[in-house]
Design brief:
The chain is an alpha/beta fold. It contains 7 helices and 9 strands; from the N terminus they run E-E-E-H-E-E-H-H-H-E-H-E-H-E-E-H.
Length: 242
């Protein structure tokens, strides 16, 4: 169970004329699935990198769970970043701790329908299959916080829909606190418990909205589109972020 508290008072890149992030505060509840929605360049990836510990050059504090423990962070990038000289299974094994049994990988491969491909190399797989491997690798570490940076942006719509469905099913079986970055409002509504809309220069939260559609109805495209239109009508500023 992992709550996340984010306070970034300033994140400015060297030689930049203004901060990328300033006076930003966000709270995530344990096992909550939150989508960050904003235009390209607003600092979404910068925020994820700060959360992951890849960028420590900022002023502020990020607390993931208990402060006296080192949190486990899962990170799924836009590019799956699989090592081409290792098989699917070997890519996943790289992140496991020594005491984790092989059955952890077996169960995830089976769930993501990749058991038959576990000894293949990434170049022999489709883009969608590589995305599924990246999801397995992130879930295999049982993260306290799972970060996802537009992981389906390069997929065709049917493949993206299938991988989103598998991701949601896996997350519902193995709940984690998730922060998912996207600029696709339909995708965000399909996935999220809560939508956080971000504007840039510097990054700021302009709306924080709970998705009221029950999980069992998230496959209903009419319900998704109806809520999307409601958001655009009720919050005109959102249109400029998409």
């Amino acid at each position: 169970m992992t709550d996340v508290q984010i306070t970034i008072t300033n994140k400015t890149y060297p030689n930049a004329l203004q901060p990328t992030i300033k006076d930003l505060q966000l709270s995530l509840t344990s096992n909550e699935f939150i989508c960050l929605v904003g235009a390209s360049g607003c600092g979404k990836t910068t925020l994820l990198n700060c959360l992951a510990g890849l960028d420590k050059q900022y002023d502020g504090e990020i607390c993931v769970g208990q402060q006296h423990t080192t949190p486990k962070i899962g990170y799924i990038f836009q590019n799956p970043r699989l090592l081409p000289w290792r098989t699917v299974r070997e890519n996943i094994e790289l992140v496991l701790e020594p005491n984790q049994p092989p059955s952890v990988i077996d169960a995830l491969l089976d769930f993501m329908q990749l058991t038959q491909a576990q000894h293949e190399y990434p170049e022999r797989l489709s883009v969608g299959m590589n995305r599924r491997v990246a999801i397995i690798r992130a879930f295999a570490v049982n993260p306290d916080l799972l970060l996802m940076d537009e992981p389906f942006v390069s997929l065709d719509p049917p493949t993206a829909r299938d991988v989103r469905r598998l991701l949601l099913q896996l997350w519902q079986q193995r709940p984690h606190t998730v922060l998912f970055v996207t600029h696709d409002l339909r995708e965000a509504i399909t996935l999220a418990d809560r939508l956080i809309f971000l504007a840039s220069t510097p990054m700021q939260v302009i709306s924080d909205i709970v998705v009221p559609i029950p999980r069992m109805q998230r496959h209903d495209e009419a319900a998704i589109e109806g809520f999307r239109q409601q958001l655009l009508n009720d919050y005109p500023a959102i249109k400029q972020l998409l």
